[in-house]
Write a structure and sequence with these properties.
Distance between the termini: 10 Å
Order of helices and strands: HHHHHHHHEEHEEHHHH
Mean pLDDT: 81
Low-confidence stretches: 1-37
Structural class: mainly alpha
Strand order of the largest sheet: 1-2
Number of strands: 4
Radius of gyration: 22 Å
Helix content: 55-70%
Shape: globular
Amino acid sequence: MGTIFGPNDDSAPLVSKRILRKLSGITNAENEEAGGAVPASSRTLSTFSGVFCPVVLSMFSVLLFLRIGFVVGQAGILETIGLFLLSYFILGLTVLSICAISTNGAIEGGGCYFMISRALGPEFGGSIGTLFFFANVFSSALYTTGCVEGLIDNFGVGGYLGEDKGLPEGRWWAFLYGSCIVAINCLVCLIGARLFARMSVGILAVVMVSALSVIISVFVLNSEILVSIPKTNMLVYNETTVDGPYINGSYTGLSTITMRGNLYSNYTKDYTTNKQLSFAVVFAVLFSGVTGIMAGANMSGDLKDPSKAIPRGTISAITFTFVTYIIVSCLVAASCDNFLIKNNYVFLQDINVWGPFVGIGIFAATMSAALSNLIGASRVLAAVARDSIFAFC
């Protein structure tokens, strides 16, 4: 087993190290061979582009546009606020630990793996780094699945934009769409961190315009709007009614009566899986949607001043996303009846001043979250391989 603090093991294949450097965007190979440190000239990312943007996008991901109605409809607004408080309390403890470690010395590439391995030793660092790599890969797959769901809900047959003609659906078609999204994200990772940072800033602007359109629409649209329930919802339709007229839910505008109807929890079946929901399931969906706090720390090797950027950017991001989630949740609970938000997960498009705003926000938020986790996984894997923790690295 190689050592972290000593020189690199000469038995580690040079070819694999070069491949890993390309994946992680490291440009100075000679400097890397000598000491493993990233030269200061290659550190180009600021707190905003390198930490704040990736963390915010990862924490918005699927939840903001696709699952906020699901959570409010099942848990009620009081329980939803409690779930957010619990989730962010757990995240806050983790962030404080990251802040303590990141300000306790020089930080190189590898994010949390680098910080943990230097604080607790190579044994803990290697095992946690490997698990963290796989966690990022599976998180990227989760957000890619959310992006595919938004794609089909909008452009599939019977979707918001597809109507009677649209993209073909099915398990293997969804696999194909997801594979294309992963391939695009992989290409961005191969190009490097600068492109990722530029894309993150632009995508965050798009997502915020979409989120603001949701908030503004609630105040602008004061009259009742009937929103169709999708005919893929077989909890509402059956074999005889699916070919008939649409069944509608109601957007009422801001109303105390509507708020009272969404005040308390009322767990029913999920129309996409036909399975009974519970507190634990809803909390799992919510919590998995806000666990993107490591996205900024993963970029530690590309930050100009990681010891300052990681704490400031991460704390600012979780505060910003928490406030956004609470505002959107309260507005949804006060303006949409319980039947609608339980049975149509893309209802925000129908109650927007311009529906495609939400569709664009869904694609931007989910795809950027998938990209952030994928490039973070490559950074962790490169750092583990660089330290020669395992014999095959």
